[in-house]
Here is the input.
Amino acid sequence: MSTADISSVREVNFDGLVGPTHNYSGLAVGNVASMSHGGLESNPKEGALQGLLKMKSLMDAGYAQGVLPPQQRPDIGALRDLGFSGSNSEVLARAALEAPQLLRAVCSASSMWTANAGTITPSIDASDNRVHFTPANLQSSFHRYLEPQTTGRVLQAIFRGEQHFAHHPVLPATPAFSDEGAANHTRLCGEYGEPGVHLFVYGRQAFGGEREPTRFPARQTLEASQAVARQHGLTQEQTVFAQQHPDAIDAGVFHNDVIAVGNGPVLLYHEMAFLDEEGTLDELRANMASPLIPVRVPLEAVSMEDAVASYLFNSQLLSNPDGTMTLVVPGECQEREAVWRTIQDYLLAGNNPISEVVVKDVKQSMRNGGGPACLRLRVVLTEAERAALSGRVLLTNALYTDLTAWVERHYRDRLAPDDLADPQLAEESLAALDELTQLLKIGPVYPFQLG
Here is the structure.
């Protein structure tokens, strides 16, 4: 690839739209924020507008920004598969009475956190020069296990055409191949258009490991990470497999992107991110063509409690044309004195490319345990690959205006868990999603549209 071609390669952040049924049901075991806010009222309209405003501000700053639609919720088909029968309203009423946790699960708007949508390998790293996609099976929790089939259809609708894109099947939905997608995967490189090294972080080994967390479950297995790497044709020299520190998982770090974030040659991470910190860094240095720039935050500067509460490491790290980087953090980072002091005195003043910190209000997402990094799926694309995208999914001022108006038309401004049984909510959600697929021009992707 020529220098000109390398400079045209861009990372596009595809953010997930917050769905109409966004609620606080406390479904995610090991996610401290989700568990602690369970049962509270949510504001789906505010959540969707907060997400769109974040996307718009990054687009205005010159970053490439895309949009992914939410899932069909409530998933009444899943309730029917579990033995509930009758009309839609009867199914919802029975589930609310007999199995309220199942009803809450099939109403979850968790697909907003598109870092879990799948794992992506850019064409620069693939032997066939195509972008590779594997939807995550998300088998660790029932409410997320419902997502992969629709996720696969959405990705294939947008990234269409075998010349540029390769789509792989979801891994078997068993504990041995538990896969949580890009939340446990980071690509490190020089420029985006240069070859990269893929850091896969796992929580446990399915077929024999040593240390595992004891309080909360480890969601990603080594075997799943290895299988995705094989699907994408990545070689041993292109990959590093590192175990997440079990103590971090037990502290509420359910994904690696809650304790580390990478971009280009920079790896910003907490001292407790990896079980074998030095071994992980040594492997990365050995495999990377460009020098690794590790930015280590020690435990004495930011406690595990502060790291989990603020989501400092669940921030977006973005490259600027002048070689510097911008860190996009949630507003909660300002509310923790130790975290904000670390950002100002250590990250911004340190010997690293991070030159700017931008604060974003994503409280509706944060209360369910998802920060700025959770809300986006990173896809590195060449100019030709961007031109080959189907649908109207790259954010523009016009699309932002249309999506904002769509949210205003269809979303409620309060939703309590007891409201999830309301059949009118289901009808509202289907009407909104049907209109959205037309607005985004992606065609039918939802079960109700496919018959």
Q: What stands out?
A: The chain has a mean pLDDT of 93.
